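User: Need the bound-state model for zinc ion:
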Amino acid sequence: MTAPRFVAVAVPIPIRRLFSYRVPDSMEPGPVPGCRVRIPLGKRDVIGTVVLSPGDPPPDGARVRDIKEILDPEPAVGPDILKLTRFVSDYYLCSWGEAIEAALPPNPGNRRKVRYVARRAGTGPEQVPQRAVAKRRILESLPESGHPVPVAELPENDRNHLRALEKAGLVEITTVQADPAEPPGTVVVPPTDLVPTPAQVKVLEEIGPAIAGDDWSPFLLFGATGSGKTEVYLRAAEQTLAAGKGVIYLVPEIGLTPLLMQRLKGRFGSQVEVLHSRLSKSERFRAWARVKDGGCRFVVGTRSAVFAPVRDPGLLVVDEEHDPSYKQQETPRYNGRDLAVLRAREAGAVLILGSATPSMESFRHAGAGRYRLLRLGGRVGGRPMAAVQVVDMREEYRMKGEIQPMAEPLIEAISARLSRGEQTLILRNRRGYAVSVFCPACGNRIQCDHCSITLTWHRRDDRLRCHACDLQRRTPERCPHCEEPGLQFLGEGSEKIEDDLKHRFPQAAIARMDRDAVRRKGAHEALLNRFDAGGIDIMVGTQMIAKGHDFPGVTLVGILSADQSLGLPDFRAGERVFQLLTQVSGRAGRGEKPGEVVLQAFDPDHPVLLEAIRQDYEAFYNREVEYRRSLRYPPFTAMVQLLVSDRNPGKAAIWADQLAEAVRMEGQGRLIVNGPGLAPVERLRGKYRQQILVRSAGRRKMVDAVGRALERVDPGVPRRAVTVDVDPYSLL
Ligand code: ADP
Ligand code: ZN
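Assistant: Bound-state model below.
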């Protein structure tokens, strides 16, 4: 008999330790690191990943159970990704198993159909008896036919009632194929032979030797919107592939990729594979498997593509590296950009971070010589940046005695575009119709039942929605608080702006792009394609319209409430607004004709607006960096946000006190610890939230101290009550 073999297994649960299992003698050869295994844990079976072997036998007396099944004949997680995920676990204080789970595609299973459900037109909760509480609630919450929701999104208990409701003719259930082919209207453009501009040549001359070499070489590519950065990435990718190495190219959001994909497919054909979260499970799995097998060495995707099993990566590109969507807002709360930096360093690869508005972190690294700064300058072909016209809304109010969401200068500018057959983008960074519902009789603003957030009225389906937890409610006739009629709908969201435009310009083709408008799979791509083809004259939208699109037909960008977010209690508020304004302004005048931006604001003299209007990133950076330095905010410190939440506000407060105390002790006076105090959103999904902010110039020591503090308060402060966010991107 051979000696017993043990392996260490990482399990995707929020406990930061590994578990020992015995490999039964019948399993020959045993699993190697990177293989997934089915193991018993407590009363359940779970899937974990072998990370170390052979493990030391556990201490005497410990009861070690057997592995039940080896799921992968070959490791699903290669050595480089094992190392990367281990880093994620140390850096973001999650378990190694959770990090591995984020790195692997979801198990495809064999569900190939998706079921949707909606209320039949004209039906409602009144049609079931009062005591059928669950059925009434379901009917209450379901949208009417025409806007079906996936059955899988309903709570499990509710799903059990659907059959009966369907039989009663109250709801309709439709089944669609989960796996449609290419989104409709995708055209493949032939490869283009652009002659690089002198600025591109200069930049490529710096990158070229780095690609040919084997050393880690980080670059920050800084160039205005439309300066030809994408073209630089594509050429660098070509060179890397030609040198026999792999490429990972990250983009912030999938809205960006349909057009980019056309450009890529035209040039790289089947050499390139796209990975993102909106693919179906089986699509994702197929793409991932092809990359893993070495059938494809070029991956384009959103943040999780940083874990793509590309062999021997020689180039990592992070486009729009400042973009908040690189930060995952659930465990593990990693930043895809920062992991790209790490992966490139580990692989001895070239890294290109690109942006017109680099993050404060990256620009500071470049200033300190840690990244090589490449300046691409202005737009390709000397095309001018858009001229900006500022509309002082206070002035408008004084003149007119009231406020229209769109002032006269903007309306005139739109009319001019329509008569010339040019396109307009309007940014209104709030979705819904009315931002809040107010009762003038008692002063109440209708809030979510579960969150300290006012509900937004969506007119299309006449519902009130919480933008934090997605609660939906029928619009009441009377104030739920004082029962008086006369509710007022205040503040114009994107839906209202779309409506106003349709009234003003009945002959124009007008569309809206925000999270509501693109819920359906393929809707986003279809909208972009339609806009690109000239089928839309005016597109209204939230920050979604600001992202990297290249629409040559756009000559006007209107920005409503440009200064709205400047007052938010988040040290990054100014940076965010500057980025958004610069990015959206950059959508105007990318084609032959020059562009114009009309910006409406109540505080047009705010420095951030002035800098954005001049498109002067470095002026913004130089001012902002002093503010960050003097108040010791990132990038001068690293930050951890700890949120302690519970349904019982008293418990949340007590636990937060204990945790803050433990952090202070472990930090031995070397950390800045603010709080606990109420989080900016005090209540979310029914839980009260306390916030602790920890900062320090020394990241490693701080993160370790926070890790020890969490252990110290365990189990008095339940781990499930605490959210740990290292390098938080939004404090709201
Ligand atoms: P960015 O990524 O910096 O916003 P792009 O690479 O998308 O810029 O380029 C902006 C526009 O200029 C695109 O329409 C692109 O096709 C065009 N362009 C880029 N490089 C060249 C070039 N060398 N010659 C002609 N046009 C170019
Ligand atoms: Zn809510």
